[in-house]
Input
Amino acid sequence: MRTLAIVGASLAGISAARAARAQGFNGRLVIIGEEPHRPYDRPPLSKDFLAGKLHGDHLFLEAPGIGPDAEPLQAEWILSAKAVRLDAESRTVFLSDGRAVPADGVVIATGARARTLPELAGLDNVFTLRTLQDAQDLAPQLLPGGHLVIVGAGFIGAEVASTARALGMEVTVICASSVPLAGPLGAEMGAVMARLHGLNGVELVCDASIDSYYSGEGNVTGVRLADGRYLPADVVLVAIGAAPNTGWLAGSGLQLGDGVLCDGMGRTGVPGVVAVGDCAAWWDGRSARHHRVEHWSAAAERPALAVAAVLDPETPQRPVSLPYFWSDQYNVKLQFAGHARDADRVAIEAGDPAEHSFLAVYYRGADPVAVLGANQPRLFTRWRRRLNAAACLAPA
Output
């Protein structure tokens, strides 16, 4: 293989580039990114960056540097260029500026984009949070005494709520379900997180839907809920999840669903093309389904498997760690590994949820399938290792 093209200057993209060099690839390495920035870390955007504790320069994962040893990847960077089409047969990536990048292997790492509410498009005080530019736009609006309304009660919404409260804002979170985070954590532990919002002065409105928005002079001034309640707003954050960036792959011959459909090593079914990160829906033999894993750990770890598969198509299936994520909210560090949906019960193994320092294990029958820790890093780590060891021994 002479040329490897990585489409997406993201954590998953840079992880794939590093893996390629570590695995002995010494050919031309091209990294294509839509943003003007080289890869940066996204988790701090909703926390320390918004709080003013970190600046953009602290987030970058790779920098140009100075001197002959400053570019260990020896990569060719093409930034501010959006991929618009892939000819899978020739493995050629076509860019928005008219350029074409032919390659012997292609790693798709185009990530995901924040979902939006079209009815709020163009209003000055309505934001999403996905990119560094999003965070730079939102940060100056988080002013003490202001009222922030967050539409969506997932991890981004909860983390921004925590940050905004620490900055002195009044915060209301609108949750469409009966408890927040019911999908990733399950209803029982979602209820624990609901109480955490309340204890920290955040108003959480559950089972809520929005009837209308009020605006004036280019800003949202308030939100009317379906039950008739009115919520005034100085700033609105739309945090309703993310959609995979796969539109540019239409007509390429790759199988698309909720992401690029791949096997358990990231192979797309088209020779020489793999997908990683938030845009990739890998096959999970444990759950018998394709699904996207939108977590930092997956973007950091899985590209090494995909790169091995693209460099050597005969590479056998290797063990894939259980999905793992963490979240920092109101001075509580949450850590989770596994799939809550695979469980039929949850047991508290240590601590007390009322104190927000506990460890909960999710079981399917007698078998542990997931674990949640709140301010229990050591105990959580032991359980995570145990679950991953068991998963590696289980039949695919």
Summary: Residues 194 and 220 are 26 Å apart (CA to CA).
